[in-house]
């Protein structure tokens, strides 16, 4: 496992690869969480997370779905691949001046059934279900999330 100093060097020098989950309910509303952490702190964002070194895409998807949505054993094959996106942020997890964050994001869409998911409280303070029109009109939904629907 990387120390925070080592991870900051990674963020400084390379793009990170992640998976975002575009989770919809049966009514077509999209799940967004209010981010607690940098980058994108205090904005609404779809759930997601980094892919770890030597982790397969399938394992990463399952781990991220459990951590972010509270859904255990969800297979990547249950979602639809929406494409590759780039996210650029002027800040970083450590608030270190002059260090930007660059993500290469693999976006996957899925429809959830049942009760609202419970994610990690250290990542999101609370969740909202928004229609696509509400999401696009909401001033605090991050532009990188809005890009999935434009």
Automatic annotation (TrEMBL):
Entry annotated with the keyword Metal-binding: yes
Domain Nudix hydrolase residues, every copy: 12-150
Sequence motif: Nudix box, positions: 49-70
Keywords: Hydrolase, Magnesium, Metal-binding
Cofactor(s), by name: Mg(2+)
Metal-binding listed as a keyword: yes
Gene3D superfamilies: Nucleoside Triphosphate Pyrophosphohydrolase
SUPFAM superfamilies attached to this UniProt entry: Nudix (SSF55811)
Residues the record lists as binding Mg(2+): 48, 68, 123
InterPro entries tied to this protein: GDPMH, NUDIX_hydrolase-like_dom_sf, NUDIX_hydrolase_dom
Record CDD domains: NUDIX_GDPMH_NudD (cd03430)
GO molecular function annotation: GDP-mannose mannosyl hydrolase activity; metal ion binding
Protein name: Colanic acid biosynthesis protein WcaH
